[in-house]
């Protein structure tokens, strides 16, 4: 089976979608009888990242005349050549044809126009279910993507990453259940139990000592972090002093309410922003527990990574997060501020409360592998190919 996969999301620093794309493609390339053509090609990605990072500077060079016209012309020529080269990587219609490919895989909510049987990855329906949590431009873009999934006549299958989202795709969008395959994400390979003593230098680089409550993820409304701040602020001072609240992740859209709560809260809240990849395992292991009071998720990558690292987790009752966290993980309603305060107080006062969960975590996380996710993609490709066969289109066996 020849798969052409869009890798445009890898032209920028990888977020959750970029991480999923890169790992899934690596796993697909390890499967027998599967070949993957990346578009744009992997060797173009550094150039694409350079272009993304310097585009404003290029426009400034083109718009403002400089004193040295020959140098300006040289820069203009270089910019134009790089721009044309990059655009050519996005204008290869033959790549999206039966000459080179059997199935088109899209992982980033932006379908290419093609007659190839198509497999799209749908991570969650947050933008459709809760548009108030997203910028208007994002809402419009994602609505267009989901409308494309429902376009009549297109041989299509969908991969999602939890049974919870699979049910939503059927109930909310009407996509037949037999055209949706549930895959999964997986923890990064360096997420494993370790020694807190050995992690101390890494934590010191982050200005932390072991024992904090940790949240990992972008600061945005659906994460329900303003409530978490209020719940933590309601703890006894002795607990707050021993167990600060740490946020790791970029600042997102619409976090004004969170910032107000942080300004009004007692001292002891740390926002680390993006954390160096090498420090993330120690960040997980140094936490008293991961706290994830999210209103809505499609999966919950921090949860599975914390479990792989042998850490404890407390989550909301969101179905996808509960599915990923496992039955031994305590759950608290995301609207129950007192419940969250009591859960954090218990975790602080009774160190043995979550020990069984810590012990079982690596084994639970080991069920979630990128190979399992890649095989789900192949299964979806077969469904799309069979749909194309029913429409009289070309089909190639795996």
Structure write-up:
With 398 residues, this protein is α/β, with parallel strands linked by helices. It has helices at 16-29, 45-63, 69-89, 126-129, 136-149, 163-173, 196-205, 225-233, 237-242, 256-264, 280-285, 301-308, 319-325, 337-349, 355-365, 370-390; strands at 2-6, 35-39, 103-106, 118-122, 156-160, 180-182, 212-216, 245-248, 269-273, 287-292, 313-315. The protein has a six-stranded parallel β-sheet with strand order 2-1-3-4-5-6, sandwiched between helices. Strands 9-8-7-10-11 form a five-stranded parallel β-sheet, with helices on both faces. α2 packs antiparallel against α3 (69-89). The longest helix is centred in the first third of the chain and has 21 residues, at 69-89. It is globular, with a radius of gyration of 23 Å.
List its traits:
398 residues; alpha/beta; Rossmann fold; five-stranded parallel beta sheet; 46% helix
Q: Radius of gyration, Cα only, in angstroms?
A: 23 Å
- Return the string of H and E elements: EHEHHEEHHEHEHEHHEHEHEHEHHHH
How many separate helices? 16
Question: In CATH, what is the homologous superfamily of the largest domain?
Answer: Glycogen Phosphorylase B
């Amino acid at each position: 089976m020849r798969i052409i996969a869009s890798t445009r999301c890898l032209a920028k620093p990888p977020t959750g979608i970029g991480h999923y794309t890169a790992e899934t493609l690596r796993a697909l390339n390890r499967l027998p009888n599967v070949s993957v053509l990346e578009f744009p090609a992997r060797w173009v990605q550094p150039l694409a990242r350079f272009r993304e990072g310097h585009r404003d500077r290029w426009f400034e060079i083109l718009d403002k005349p400089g004193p040295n016209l020959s140098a300006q012309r040289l820069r203009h020529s270089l910019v134009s050549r790089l721009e044309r080269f990059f655009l050519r990587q996005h204008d290869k219609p033959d790549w999206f044809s039966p000459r080179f490919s059997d199935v088109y895989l899209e992982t980033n909510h932006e379908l290419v126009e093609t007659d190839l049987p198509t497999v799209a990855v749908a991570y969650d329906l947050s933008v459709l279910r809760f548009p108030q949590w997203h910028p208007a431009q994002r809402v419009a873009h994602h609505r267009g993507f989901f409308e494309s999934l429902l376009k009549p006549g297109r041989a299509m299958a969908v991969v999602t990453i939890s049974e919870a989202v699979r049910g939503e795709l059927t109930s909310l969008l009407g996509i037949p259940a037999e055209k949706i395959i549930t895959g999964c994400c997986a923890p990064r390979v360096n997420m494993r139990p370790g020694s807190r003593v050995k992690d101390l230098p890494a934590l010191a680089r982050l200005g932390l000592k072991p024992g904090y409550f940790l949240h990992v993820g972008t600061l945005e409304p659906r994460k329900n972090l303003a409530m978490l701040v209020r719940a933590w602020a309601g703890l006894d001072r002795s607990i707050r002093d021993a167990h600060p609240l740490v946020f790791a992740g970029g600042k997102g859209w619409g976090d004004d309410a969170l910032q107000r709560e942080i300004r009004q809260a007692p001292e002891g809240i740390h926002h680390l922003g993006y954390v160096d990849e090498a420090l993330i395992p120690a960040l997980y292991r140094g936490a008293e527990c991961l706290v994830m009071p999210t209103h809505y998720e499609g999966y919950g990558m921090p949860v599975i990574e914390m479990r792989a690292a042998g850490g404890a987790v407390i989550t909301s009752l969101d179905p996808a997060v509960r599915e990923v966290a496992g039955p031994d993980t305590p759950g608290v309603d995301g609207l129950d501020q007192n419940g969250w305060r009591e859960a954090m107080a218990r975790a602080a006062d009774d160190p043995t409360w979550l020990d069984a969960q810590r012990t079982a975590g690596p084994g639970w996380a080991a069920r979630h592998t990128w190979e399992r996710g890649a095989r789900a993609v192949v299964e979806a490709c077969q469904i799309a190919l069979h749909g194309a066969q029913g429409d009289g289109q070309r089909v190639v066996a795996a």
